[in-house]
Design goal:
With 261 residues, the protein is mainly β. Helix content is 6%, strand content 57%. The chain contains three helices and 16 strands.
Length: 261
């Protein structure tokens, strides 16, 4: 067993793995018998000083497509604001799913031994639903910040079974997550092969079918450390996420290899 070590890894991000201006896009699929394309998520990492103490913003926009857009339209956004040393300061999530609209905000304050997070949720239908403070010991982030955490793992030091624990603030809860490294694997997608690092993910949360191996992630085995594939068990079926494209990355996407026809 191991955990993140050293100054660069304490925040769950290494500065060399990302740069301002990068963009990347993922496709999401829902599998329950059939595999159906469900939506598209786009990410941007850019300079931003809108929040006091912040120098960077990670932004995600998700939209449903096709059948799902007609059945249950989703237009969700998430923003995470980070300090110069890559600590998450403020998180803002706007959920617009069908007729439901909500704003979730998390404000992080870091102490020597613990982190406090003010969690606030407002809904269009019922006003303020959450206004509370969470307390965490150890690594803690929001849902979008999990991406930062993954991209901070030192891939050169990985050994089978290495475990990386993390708490994720969601509403009133702190969800315990741990990434467990398995081995190198190849993922094939759209006429490409991707060299990846394969992790199983334990998630202790009622939304998942089980806590053990509730999800899996295949991270690109190059200096960008971009997730290439994600697979999550749900109470009904699975959600799968696939890397589609990227631009302005900090490093060449050398994990991607064209398949010769």
């Amino acid at each position: 067993m191991c955990c993140l070590q050293g100054t660069a890894q304490k925040t769950g991000m290494q500065s060399y793995s990302m740069k301002h201006g990068e963009n990347y896009i993922y496709e999401t699929y829902f599998k329950w018998g059939l595999m159906m394309r469900a939506g598209e998520a786009s990410f941007k990492y850019r300079p931003d000083h809108a929040i006091t103490g912040a120098t960077s913003q990670m932004y995600m926009r998700y939209k449903s497509i096709g059948f799902f857009d007609n059945f249950f339209k989703m237009r969700d956004t998430m923003s995470g604001y980070y300090s110069a040393d890559h600590r998450l300061i403020f998180s803002d999530q706007r959920t617009h799913d069908g007729g439901y609209y909500a704003i979730d905000q998390l404000r992080f304050n870091y102490g020597e031994e613990k982190t406090t997070i003010h969690s606030y949720r407002w809904t269009l239908s019922r006003g303020v639903r959450i206004d509370t403070t969470l307390t965490a010991v150890g690594e803690v982030t929001d849902m979008l910040g999990v991406l930062f955490y993954l991209r901070g793992i030192n891939r050169q030091l990985l050994n089978h079974g290495d475990t990386f624990p993390l708490k994720v603030a969601v509403g009133r809860d702190l969800v315990n997550v741990q990434f467990i490294y398995q081995n190198q694997m190849i993922v094939e997608r759209d006429n490409y092969k991707f060299n990846t690092l394969y992790f199983k993910i334990d998630i202790i949360d009622n939304a998942f079918e089980s806590s053990k191996s509730a999800a899996e992630v295949w991270v690109g085995d190059d200096d960008n450390l971009l997730p290439i594939k994600v697979r999550s068990k749900m109470k009904i079926g699975y959600v799968e996420v696939y890397f589609k494209s990227a631009s302005e990355l900090a490093h060449p996407l050398s994990c991607r290899i064209p398949v010769k026809k």
